């Protein structure tokens, strides 16, 4: 297969970029929908740039910290409840996710992987969950229009914690296209009930001034179901075969 058939790519990629993609990125079958189709296509350019800069800019940990800051700033903006703040928060999430892609690529390009890096990467993932809590709190307090009931507020908190903790305890954090059997429909569904999908779709009701409580409820239910599917995949692939 050619590079374009398996790895993220852009029409203007040169040989340096092609080689870097093969060295530090994953093929489509091992990558998440949003990362493969959007973020990884541009992240490699930033990764090459950062890897050539002096310390601390070339440090993967520095890049991860930038991602954490982006997520925390987004949470602060959400809690204010302003329309502009919400829009910027959704965009800052994407910036934070982009940094999450870049830090690992830079670590592999510079052969600079560490335990601290893995810890910071987990904190960055956790900061994304805190952003969800920020939306839930702002909705519960009535700052985003229609109020969330206490039940739904607690359910969103639970689904966020459940979706973050359980897969990591089982050694997984993403469902790849391989595990979805490369189904376009399942790709789209999985995207819509993922954080990138939520913060992309949320832009629509925010722009038009529509309450977002329905989307938060739908997302939390979908996230819980997706987490249960992840658990079942692990049980099916790793645990059940041992008892045959």
From TrEMBL:
Gene3D superfamilies linked? 1.20.120.1760
InterPro entries hit by this protein:
CDP-OH_P_trans (IPR000462), CDP-OH_PTrfase_TM_dom (IPR043130), CDP_ALCOHOL_P_TRANSF_CS (IPR048254)
Keywords assigned = Membrane, Transferase, Transmembrane, Transmembrane helix
Record flagged with keyword Transferase: yes
- Cite the GO molecular-function annotations of the record: phosphotransferase activity, for other substituted phosphate groups
One GO BP annotation of this record = phospholipid biosynthetic process
Q: Does the keyword Transferase apply?
A: yes
Transmembrane portions of the chain? 33-50, 62-79, 123-144, 150-172, 184-208
Q: Which GO terms describe its cellular component?
A: membrane
**What superkingdom does the record give?**
Bacteria
One of this protein's Pfam families, by short name?
A: CDP-OH_P_transf
Similarity section: Belongs to the CDP-alcohol phosphatidyltransferase class-I family.
Its recorded name reads CDP-alcohol phosphatidyltransferase family protein
């Amino acid at each position: 297969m050619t590079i374009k058939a398996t790895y993220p790519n852009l029409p203007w990629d040169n040989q340096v970029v092609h080689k870097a993609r093969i060295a530090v990125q994953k093929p489509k079958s091992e990558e998440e929908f949003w990362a493969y189709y959007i973020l990884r296509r541009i992240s490699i350019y930033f990764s090459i740039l950062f890897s050539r800069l002096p310390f601390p800019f070339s440090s993967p940990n520095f890049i991860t910290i930038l991602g954490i800051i982006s997520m925390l700033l987004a949470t602060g903006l959400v809690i204010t409840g302003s329309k502009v703040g919400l829009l910027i928060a959704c965009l800052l999430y994407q910036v934070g996710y982009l940094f999450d892609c870049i830090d690992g690529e830079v670590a592999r390009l510079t052969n600079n992987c560490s335990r601290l890096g893995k810890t910071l990467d987990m904190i960055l993932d956790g900061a994304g969950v805190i952003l969800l809590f920020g939306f839930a709190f702002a909705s519960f307090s009535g700052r985003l229009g229609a109020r969330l009931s206490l039940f739904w507020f607690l359910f969103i908190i639970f689904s966020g914690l459940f979706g973050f903790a359980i897969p990591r305890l089982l050694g997984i954090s993403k469902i790849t296209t391989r595990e979805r059997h490369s189904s376009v429909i399942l790709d789209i569904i999985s995207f819509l009930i993922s954080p990138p999908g939520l913060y992309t779709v949320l832009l629509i009701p925010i722009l038009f001034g529509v309450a977002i409580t329905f989307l938060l409820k739908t997302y939390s239910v979908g996230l819980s179901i997706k987490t249960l599917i992840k658990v079942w995949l692990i049980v099916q692939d790793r645990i059940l075969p041992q008892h045959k």
